[in-house]
Design goal:
heterodimer; A: AhpD-like; 11 helices; globular; B: 5 helices; 0% strand; elongated
Chain lengths: 191, 102
């Protein structure tokens, strides 16, 4: 990573935890985990992400992981695209659905409320704003205001995380490590 | 539905007003993406608007002007949270406007 403190500046407790992770997972500690364990008293974004991704919602965990992958695609953040497309694919038990959605949202095999919601999340990431017409489109496609608010919470979490991943230069891990990380996110979450 | 409002407010308050290695005014400027001079301005503007274009040289330039890595970390975090918050607030405002017409 671009800041050496994110690789080597952790507390002794965090260093011990990372050693344990390396031992148990048999993979290097991914950069997202290094960030989460570096000065959590200052930056505790994982708690916001946990609520957005695993808190109560009419969206499934798989849907929200797909949103994270779509937002990260709009932000062109390789680490998060790989991590969350893998997590969504495992949660859906459908890799083809995730790949097709990231390739072409217009023809993706998803229902219309989710398609419309993914459209506004993409526009928000790319253009930094939305207007009432955008929201009317999503509402008329069947997404309730509660579901849109839940999707915007996912959007906040990943519009922060993607920026940090890009700015700090997160490395994209090998496929086995990505799958291992995806299974961890599904079993343990973000908090 | 999920509710990030409390955690979001706490996160923003912590990074802007809590203890840090960068001054509160520097963190606020990074959060607002405003009032900064180069090379910090270039780095923070990239984080806010085109984070995938940040380079090693952008970080090195800020380090060379005397900012510590801890300070750079805090400024980048504030810039990311600031821009994501502006996106989030604008989107919620658009939803409120659309719902108000129903």
């Amino acid at each position: 990573m671009r800041l050496s403190v994110l690789d080597h500046g952790h507390s002794l407790r965090a260093k011990a935890l990372m050693a344990l992770i390396r031992l148990v997972s048999r993979h290097r500690v991914v950069d997202a985990v290094k960030l989460a364990l570096y000065r959590p008293d200052f930056y505790f974004g994982g708690r916001v992400t946990q609520e957005a991704m695993r808190g109560p919602s009419e969206w499934s965990v798989a849907d929200r992981e797909l949103m994270a992958a779509v937002i990260s695609t709009a932000n062109q953040t390789p680490f998060c695209i790989m991590a969350h497309s893998a997590t969504s694919a495992i949660a859906y038990r459908d890799h083809a659905k995730v790949s097709a959605t990231l390739a072409d949202l217009d023809t993706a095999p998803v229902d219309e409320p989710l398609r419309a919601t993914l459209r506004i999340l993409t526009k928000l990431a790319r253009e930094n704003s939305l207007d009432a017409d955008d929201m009317r489109m999503a509402l008329s496609a069947g997404a309730s205001s509660e579901k849109i608010k839940d999707a915007l919470a996912v959007s906040f979490a990943f519009n922060v995380t993607d920026r940090l991943a890009d700015a700090f230069g997160f490395a994209v891990d090998d496929p086995d490590a990505i799958k291992s990380g995806a299974r961890f996110l599904l079993s343990r979450g973000y908090g | 539905m999920s509710d990030i409002s409390f955690l979001h407010r706490a996160l923003v308050a912590r990074v802007l007003e809590g203890d840090g290695r960068a001054s509160q005014s520097m963190r606020r400027s990074a959060y607002d993406n405003a009032g900064l001079d180069d090379p910090v301005r270039t780095l923070i503007e990239k984080v806010a608007l085109h984070a995938n274009t940040v380079t090693d040289a952008d970080i090195a330039a800020v380090r060379e002007m005397g900012l510590s890595e801890e300070q750079i970390f805090e400024m980048v975090v504030c810039a990311a949270i600031g821009q994501a918050t502006r996106q989030y607030d604008r989107a919620l405002g658009a939803l409120e406007a659309a719902m108000g017409e129903r």
